[in-house]
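queue> pop job 88
queue> type: inverse folding (structure -> sequence)
queue> payload:
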């Protein structure tokens, strides 16, 4: 196999982030790249109809897996990405981490607004889920929208201006995409 130039960046990113998502055109070698870079690691593709269907129809069973946090985060980000693309929008999706280790799983740039999205696979909400968003709000100032916490629970509400919801169970991806 040919070593790809991007392999080094992929390995560095995997050391910094809990989930690494590789996007690209069909049949461009994404799966081969990931499997070569991470031999022996579990690999999940949400393009696999069985994996996607299991995640959408029975998230409780799917996310009992030890990798559920990464799977849940990947599912949410992929659905947000697909929603942007299906609306004809150019998705501007980012990850945020500061020098103190505060992080937000997803930042969506919508014009001048920055929308923080924290993604948690837990079924029970805790106020600690807001910490990264609150730190980001202080840093971004007026450009920061209130944001979202996506979790695997049953309840939906607003806390400190931040929407807390389960976009998979409640079908609320449009709420995040249209913000």
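queue> result:
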């Amino acid at each position: 196999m040919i070593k790809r130039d991007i392999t080094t960046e992929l390995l560095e990113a995997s050391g910094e982030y809990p989930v690494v998502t590789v996007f690209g055109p069909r049949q461009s070698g994404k799966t081969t790249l990931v499997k070569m870079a991470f031999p022996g690691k579990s690999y999940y593709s949400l393009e696999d109809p069985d994996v996607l269907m299991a995640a959408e129809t029975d998230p409780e069973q799917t996310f009992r897996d030890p990798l559920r946090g990464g799977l849940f985060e990947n599912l949410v980000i992929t659905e947000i990405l697909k929603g942007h693309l299906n609306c004809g929008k150019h998705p501007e999706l980012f990850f945020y981490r500061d020098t103190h280790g505060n992080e937000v799983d997803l930042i969506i740039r919508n014009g001048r607004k920055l929308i923080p999205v924290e993604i948690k696979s837990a079924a029970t909400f805790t106020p600690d889920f807001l910490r990264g968003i609150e730190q980001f709000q202080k840093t971004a100032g007026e450009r920061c929208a209130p944001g979202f916490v996506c979790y695997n629970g049953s309840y939906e509400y607003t806390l400190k201006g931040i929407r807390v919801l389960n976009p998979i169970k409640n079908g609320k991806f449009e709420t995040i995409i249209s913000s």
